[in-house]
Amino acid sequence: MSHEPFPTDGTTVVTCGLPYANGDLHVGHLRGYVAADAYNRALGKLGQETAYVCGSDMHGTPIAVNAAEAGVSPESFALEYHEQYQETFPEFGVEFDNYGHTDDATNTELTRDIVRTLEDEGYVYEKEIMVAFDPEEGQALPDRFVEGTCPYCGERARGDECDEGCGRHLEPGEIEAPESTVTGNPAEYRERTHRFFRVSELQAYLQGFIDRLEGTENAKNQPREWIEGELRDWCITRDMDWGVDYPGEAGEGEDGLVLYVWVDAPIEYIASTRQYSERVGADTYDWEEVWTDDDGEIVHVIGRDIIQHHTVFWPAMLHAAGYTEPRAVAATGFITINGKGLSTSRNRAIWAREYLDEGFHPDLLRYYLTTNGGLQQDVDFSWDKFQSRVNSELVGALGNFAYRSLLFAQRNYGGTPDTDVSEAVADRIDEALAAFRAAVNDYSVRAVGEAALDLARFGNEYIQREEPWNLVDEAPERAEQVIRDCVQLSVALAVLFEPIAPDTAERLYDQVGADGDVHAVTLDAAHDAPAAEFGEPDELVTKIEDDRVETLNEKLAERIAESASDEESEPTDDTETMDLEPITDDRVSFDTFQDLDLRVGRIETAEPIEGADKLVRLEVDIGVETRQVVAGIRQLHEVDDLPGTRVVLVANLEKSELFGVESNGMLLAAGEEADLLTTHADSPPGTKIR
């Protein structure tokens, strides 16, 4: 890849983490797919040759477990969801150039070829390991067929991941006190021969790769814990019969092994690109220029829970097999619902089909998901916040400006006034185009949307200030100039807003009678002259009324309550499904508590610590002095929003050093979400807490 600013001379592919064919889509899923779609469209606006590909992840133990419970084959179980995804994504304007799945022939053959290459290059070896086994059922227990205790943090964990604790990837045989999820009985460990990928031999390469990698900060920093520490080899086979058979010398699937799902899943990115190329022809788009040439530009958009797979295992596999490394990995944050963690088991989710059935336009959700916070930040969805942003920004800013401008132009001039755009407005459009280009190169989908909305706000201020309705009789030439400018601004808005809200942009582009396809034009089209004549416009976005939001909130609360009452094991309140820690029986004396010097503080400055995914360096005013404090809150709080926040600080804690930065105190926070403790009233910095 070039690492030159986009657009480059190379060919780009944008991918999104494969949806696991195991359940219905909700807004948490849609955030990544919409963001990747918007980014791919934005690249096209720069004139970059690009394609957006993806596919359903069909393999792995969760699908095998759920298929068995449903009494169907894993293949038919996964295909049903795959077909559902194929139908649902286009309804939200998510337009893949190719959408395949990991069980199709292209991916299966390509996966086997790549694994054979890894073997030929000496990167695969055999090793005897202990694997969990269910003696009652007489079967091996790979990955999520076994649960137990994480050997690193002691929390409850699945066989392949400590999902409730430290989040570490777990290799077969690591989990302690294993239990079979098939029978619920204790499992036992038995010796078995498996294949391992020599990731450890690629440590030097990976250290260079992570320094070159572009994308979001969490994707660039989080993997350093593995890459710069002890990098262990990776078990790439599993004891099960659902997946891509291991390509052994004795034939496919020798020894009854299949490849681990995280081998064949990312290879679908290549397979899907290849299928697209074969369909349109290499002259139109050549998959090999992306995946095997130095000029290939590969951009992955993923959820932050799979950063390790995409920045450690995947680039190591690509490099060892002779493929192009990714240029960028952009990792999204999670979605919460009404400030609480999304819980599909409790039906605390906004389902994709539910949203569409309510009759809302997909572009409204696209806008909310792509511009509500930075890509790597968590986003909270609530119907109230959704209404507020739609009404104030899409209706009040964009829709209001376009409708009033074009309606005035049509009724007074039959379309576009016969004059040139003013230099000031042309310059302001150029500023918006520059902001758009910068946003693409910063991997900021939010800033792509803001470039358009800021231009709409400028347009509103401009038409309100100039009041052309008062100039028609008094200064007709000035009135023509103002409206000519506003019509041109509408053209520019359609071009700039297309990646975020493609259907809305298309309708606006049609209303001004612009030539060409708004989905295909580049940014230069923002300066193209609109039609001399066009019809009366329609309103682009309609206001969401309060009573509708009230009804939607009631429906959601009702559904959550019903789901909770159906599950005896669920908490009776509206807390997260995880158990609260029990209160310890050990007590401390009042004198011991008095030894803690707790002070009210105010964060003055905040900045990320280079190389540390979670840490932020803070300057905290505690009245008598300003302290430097290091806090592990970077992934849970927007760093730029922290200054001005009141906090509670342990002021007499011993100093420590984290990543070479001294920390003189400790912030207090509640729970896994690091809810910062503060005071009810505005107690001044330095106030002692008693």
Account of the 3D structure:
It is a single chain. With 690 residues, this protein is α+β, with helices and mostly antiparallel strands. Among the domains are: 112-259, Methionyl-trna Synthetase, domain 2; 384-527, Isoleucyl-tRNA Synthetase, Domain 1; 590-689, OB fold (Dihydrolipoamide Acetyltransferase, E2P) (Beta Barrel), CATH 2.40.50. The chain contains 20 helices and 30 strands. A 6-stranded parallel sheet has the order 3-2-1-16-17-10, with helices on both faces. Strands 21, 22, 23, 24, 27 and 30 form a 6-stranded antiparallel sheet that branches. Strands 5-4-9-11 form a 4-stranded antiparallel sheet. Helix 12 crosses helix 13, helix 16 (468-474) runs antiparallel to helix 17 (476-497) and helix 17 packs antiparallel against helix 18 (502-511). Mean pLDDT is 90; it is low at 567-585. ATP binds at residue 344. It is found in: Cytoplasm. This is Methionine--tRNA ligase.
CATH architecture of the domain at 112-259: Beta Complex
User: What is the overall pLDDT average?
Assistant: 90
CATH topology call of the domain at 112-259: Methionyl-trna Synthetase, domain 2
Low-confidence stretches: 567-585
Tell me what portion of residues adopts beta-strand conformation.
15-25%
CATH class annotation of the domain at 112-259: Mainly Beta
Helical content (DSSP H or I, runs of 4+) = 25-40%
**Radius of gyration, Cα only, in angstroms?**
28 Å
In what order do the strands lie side by side in the largest sheet?
Answer: 3-2-1-16-17-10
Number of strands: 30
Q: What is the tally of helical segments?
A: 20
Distance between the termini: 58 Å
How is the main sheet built? Answer: 6 strands, parallel
Structural class: alpha+beta
What is the general shape?
A: globular
Domain TRNA-binding: 592-690
Keywords: Aminoacyl-tRNA synthetase, ATP-binding, Cytoplasm, Ligase, Metal-binding, Nucleotide-binding, Protein biosynthesis, RNA-binding, tRNA-binding, Zinc
Binding site for ATP: 344
Binding site for Zn(2+): 150, 153, 162, 166
